[in-house]
Amino acid sequence: MNYSEYKGLRFDRPEDGVLLVTINRPEVLNATDSRTHWELSRVWKDIDEDEQTRVVLVTGAGKAFSAGGDLDMIAQTKGNPANVAASWREAGDLVYNMLNLDKPIVSAINGVAVGAGLTVALMADISIASDRMRITDGHLRLGVAAGDHAVILWPLLCGMAKAKYYLLTADFIDGREAERIGLVSLCVPHEELMERALDVCRRLARGSQPALRWTKRALNNWLRAAGPAFDASLAFEMLGFFGDDLSEGIKALREKREPQFPSASGRKPKD
Predict the structure, then answer these.
(1) Residue 212 sits in a domain of what CATH number?
(2) Which domain does 96 fall in, by range?
(3) Cβ within 8 Å of residue 84, ≥6 positions away
(4) What is the CA radius of gyration of the chain?
(5) Half-sphere exposure of residue 70, counting CA atoms within 13 Å on the CB side?
(6) Within a domain: 17
(7) d(CA 123, CA 84)
(8) pLDDT recorded at residue 268
(9) What is the percent of the chain where pLDDT is above 70?
């Protein structure tokens, strides 16, 4: 399998049967531009056809896993039907292509994870967090509904009460708390993260591959059952790209301040 056409992802083979996929835009904390967002949505299909790969390990270059969607990309998507449709399709493909890949996926969450990067981190079958990890589903900070992976996954992992609290408030969660509430599989000291993740990958790569893949496929029927709720969440998120709040959300993030959404105050946004 030739991965040379990918621009925002780096590929290595640290162990026999293990493919290491690194989100590789460290100069912007691995924020996903339009190209990288598309690559994250489709790479799982290429991995599915990769006969050398039995297990996938995914992480971020540098000190972040992924700082979320590039704000320029989000601004270009706002109010643009063609861009919204493309984003809608890719967001769904990202979740369903990870879910439908029978090969196990392990994530090593080495720092901040937001947006599409958080989707990859948590949709992994085994998620291993550094104790320096900080995550948030930041959709509500941006002024759009929590789409991406949240509705299909969070209630199953940490329960409806915690899912509603963290998705509606967009509060940050550190590695220890994420492990405590069941949002990640493990939290380990930062210095041990990659070795622990590689150790898990080695064990999986040596295991019975049909047994591993069929177990994953069966377990993922819990997520498939939530497919209609997930599809609705994506649609509601995309509706927000035609509303007034998104402009204020983008501006507030750029200015590193709390947003003052028009829908909460009755005022009109200023571009």
Answers:
(1) 3.90.226.10
(2) 9-255
(3) 77, 238, 241, 242
(4) 18
(5) 19
(6) yes
(7) 23
(8) 59
(9) 98
pTM: 0.94
Query: Rounded mean pLDDT of 47-72?
Result: 95
Residue 65 in any domain: the answer is yes
Rounded distance, CA 113 to CA 138, Å? Answer: 10
DSSP of 189-218: -GGGHHHHHHHHHHHHHHS-HHHHHHHHHH
* Sign of the CA dihedral running 85, 229, 165, 266: positive
Q: pLDDT category, 69, cuts 50, 70, 90?
A: confident
Quote the tokens at residue 252.
């507030």
Residue 192 is assigned to a structural domain of this protein: yes
Count of the separate structural domains present in the chain: 1
Residue count (the chain): 271
Quickly state the pLDDT bin for 9 (edges 50, 70, 90).
very high
**At residue 189, what are phi and psi to the nearest 5 degrees?**
-55, 145
β-strands 66-67, 112-114: how paired? parallel
Position 173 in a domain: yes
